[in-house]
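Researcher: Next entry in the queue.
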Amino acid sequence: MKTNPFDLTGKIALVTGASRGIGEEIARLLAEYGAYVIISARKAGACQAVAESIVKAGGKAEAFACNIGNMDDIKSVFGHIRAKHGKLDILIN
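Model: Structure for this entry, 93 residues:
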């Protein structure tokens, strides 16, 4: 029996800049391969729209607004990941 080398089931991924463009497409692809994707960018509404679209397509995603230029925002997103998921497997900046 062959296994899929791209199976990301059970993996937690954080993609910054995922509200549009390349970041959004990376997030969608990770979700297609089974990862739970945390959509992050500065604007909460745009993050939420992408996350909802991924979930509607059958993937697993959530939105978390974060300005990576703000250390308090970075601490907040990683605190959330630690509390909710206990780990982070994939980080795409």
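Model: Residues 71-84 form the longest helix (14 residues).
Researcher: Noted, moving on.
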